[in-house]
Amino acid sequence: MRKTLIIALAALSGVVLTSVGLPSSNPAPVKVSVKGESTFAYADTLSWKLLGQIKYLKKPSKDYPEGVMYPVINTTLKAKQGKQVVMTGFVIPIDNKSYAISKNMFKACFFCGQAGPETIMGIKLKNPGQRFKTDEYLTLKGTFRYNDSDVDDWIYHIENAEVVK
Length: 165
What we know:
Layout (H helix, E strand, L loop, with lengths): L1 H19 L9 E5 L2 E5 L6 H4 L3 E5 L8 E5 L2 H5 L4 E10 L5 E4 L17 E6 L11 E10 L9 E8 L2
Parallel strand pairs: 7-9
Antiparallel strand pairs: 1-2, 3-4, 5-6, 5-8, 6-7, 8-9
């Protein structure tokens, strides 16, 4: 039942976004009703489609003189740097303490060759002791940061992240 409610809320968020546009940079909860039950949810202010609108430019670096592909971030995402965002995705454990959020479930994430690095976001939690299960479907609220210079780090991040319901 809970998974059904989460999926329904995510679908409703998509409908809201396409019908009214993107919300302001300070997202507020909206009241939704699913199967007669009212609850509050956050509409995503980022989408995996928007994060996927990325290009790459090959250039040399100190560690990779033969050249490496650097991300070229689009202007819409550059404008969101340092702003509060809401994003939904699947939890991917990185190690015992850190997680990422992914467009795809673990079995189809970019580690397994099914997608690119733009389909995952590093998470820095406001409460670092929280634990999540692999492929748990979460909506996070936090500060957006992109990285276009360190090829050994995620391209996208959500910092000071909190789980919202």
